[in-house]
Write a structure and sequence with these properties.
With about 350 residues, this protein is α/β, with parallel strands linked by helices. It has a domain at about 60-100 and about 115-240 and about 260-335: Aldolase class I (TIM Barrel). Helix content is about 30%, strand content about 15%. The chain has twelve helices and 16 strands. It has helices spanning about 20-25, 25-30, 70-75, 120-130, 150-160, 180-185, 185-200, 215-225, 265-275, 290-300, 310-315, 315-330; strands at about 45, 55, 60, 85, 105, 110, 140-145, 165-170, 205-210, 230-235, 235-240, 240-245, 250, 255-260, 280-285, 305. The strands form four sheets. Strands 3-16-15-10-9-8-7-4 form an eight-stranded parallel β-sheet. A four-stranded antiparallel β-sheet has the order 5-6-14-11, with no helix packed on it. Helix 8 (about 215-225) crosses helix 9 and helix 10 packs across helix 12 (about 315-330). The radius of gyration is 19 Å and the shape is globular. The termini are far apart. Residues about 5-30 have low confidence and may be disordered.
C-alpha cells in the first residue's frame, strides 16, 4: 500500500457554510482529482477560523485519558506520525483519583472511573510541556476544573506555554464530584466555561461534550457562540456494572463512563447532529477502532477523530486507523480526506 501523504503544507481552509457539498467545502482539494501519482492527502485544519489555526498532518489523535502524557507511547512508535496528541485530564492541583478498582470490562467496551488522577497544572508546565515542545506534532492540553472561573484561570496559565498548541475543555467527565459533567449538562454553564477560557488565551479552545444530555446540539451551539474553535463529541456514556457475587456495583463509585464499540452509534449520531448545526469543526470520538470507523465519522461531518479504548487492546491502534484511512481513500480514488468530510450530511441552506 502506498503510504498516505500527510504534509501539513497541503492543508486547506474549510468553508463552513458549504457543508454537505464536499467539492464546495474544499474547492482546492476538489480541483485536483486523485490520479494515483501521489498518496492521498490526510491534512486537516481543526481551527480554520482561529488566528493561529490548528493544522494536523492527519485527522487522528488519541482521546484524553487513554494515552497518558504521550511519553510512554513515544517509546514504542514515532509520536510525530499522529495528527495530534491529547493529554490526559489536567487539574489545577494534583489528584490521586478514585479508589480501585477503576475499570470494569463490558461485553462491547469498558467502564472507567479514574477520577482525573494527574500531576497537576504546575508540574505539567514545568516537566511535561518542555518535552512536548520538542515533538513535531501539536499537543492539545485537556483541562478540567471545579468551576467555570477556574477554566479561565487555567487557560491563562497555559497561554503561551511552549509545547501546547490548543486546549480541550473537559466539561464532561462523569467521574468527579465537582465540575465535569456538572458543568457540561448545563447550556449556560458550558457557555460560560467556554467564554472564560477563550477570554484568557490565544490558543484554540476545543470543547468536549457529554452525551448524557437531551440536546447536545444546544450545548455545541452555545460553546460555538462563545468562541470555541472546535467541538469534540463525545465523552463517555454513563453506565453501571454489577458484581453478582458481591451483590454490589463493580466500581466503588457505582457508575462509570462507558466507552468502546458499544457507544459508536451514539457518538456517530451526535457528531452528525452537531455537524449539521454548527459551523466549526467537530472531532468525532467514541468506539473508533479501525480506519473504516473513522471514515464513517468523517462522512458524518467530523474533521478529525479521537481513538481511545482501542489503544488498551492495541497500543498501535492509532497508527492502524491512520493507515486504514489512507488505504480507503486510495482504494476509492479520493485525493484528499477533506473531500469526504460531511459528505453524508444534507446540504446546508
Amino acid at each position: 500500500m502506498v503510504k498516505p501523504q500527510t504534509s501539513p503544507d497541503r492543508v486547506q481552509g474549510r468553508k463552513a457554510s458549504s457543508r454537505g457539498n464536499p467539492a464546495a467545502l474544499f474547492p482546492a482539494a476538489a480541483a485536483h482529482p486523485y490520479t494515483g501519482d501521489v498518496p492521498p492527502d490526510l491534512g486537516v485544519d481543526l481551527a480554520p477560523g482561529h488566528k493561529t489555526g490548528l493544522q494536523l498532518r492527519n485527522p487522528v489523535m488519541p482521546a484524553s485519558g487513554t494515552f497518558s502524557w504521550g511519553l510512554e507511547f513515544a517509546k514504542h512508535f514515532d509520536i510525530n506520525a499522529l495528527g495530534a496528541v491529547v493529554s490526559k485530564g489536567i487539574t489545577t492541583a494534583p489528584r490521586q483519583g478514585n479508589p480501585q478498582p477503576r475499570v470494569a470490562e463490558t461485553p462491547a467496551g469498558m467502564l472507567n472511573s479514574i477520577g482525573l488522577q494527574n500531576v497537576g497544572l504546575g508540574e505539567v508546565i514545568k516537566s511535561l510541556a518542555p518535552t512536548w515542545a520538542k515533538w513535531d506534532v501539536p499537543v492539545i492540553a485537556n483541562i478540567a476544573a471545579d468551576t467555570v472561573e477556574e477554566f479561565g484561570e487555567m487557560a491563562a496559565r497555559l497561554d503561551g506555554t511552549p509545547g501546547i498548541a490548543a486546549l480541550e475543555l473537559n466539561i464532561s467527565c462523569p467521574n468527579v464530584d465537582q465540575g465535569g459533567i456538572e458543568i457540561g449538562q448545563s447550556v449556560e454553564a458550558s457557555a460560560r466555561a467556554t467564554r472564560a477560557a477563550v477570554r484568557h488565551t490565544d490558543l484554540p479552545v476545543i470543547v468536549k461534550l457529554t452525551p448524557n444530555v437531551t440536546d447536545p446540539v444546544a450545548l455545541a451551539l452555545a460553546c460555538e457562540a462563545e468562541g470555541a474553535a472546535a467541538i469534540c463529541a463525545i465523552n463517555t456514556v454513563l453506565g453501571l456494572a454489577i458484581d453478582t457475587r458481591r451483590r454490589r456495583p463493580v466500581l466503588p463509585r457505582a457508575r462509570g463512563g462507558l466507552s468502546g464499540p458499544a457507544i459508536k452509534p451514539i457518538a456517530l449520531r451526535i457528531v452528525y447532529d452537531v455537524a449539521k448545526a454548527a459551523r466549526i469543526p467537530v472531532i468525532g470520538c467514541g468506539g473508533i477502532r479501525t480506519g473504516q470507523d473513522a471514515i464513517e465519522f468523517l462522512m458524518a461531518g467530523a474533521t478529525a477523530v479521537q481513538v481511545g479504548t482501542a489503544t488498551f487492546a492495541n497500543p498501535r491502534a492509532l497508527l492502524d486507523v491512520i493507515e486504514g484511512i489512507g488505504g480507503w481513500l486510495e482504494g476509492e480514488g479520493v485525493a484528499s480526506v477533506r473531500d469526504i468530510i460531511g459528505c453524508a450530511l444534507p446540504p446546508r441552506d
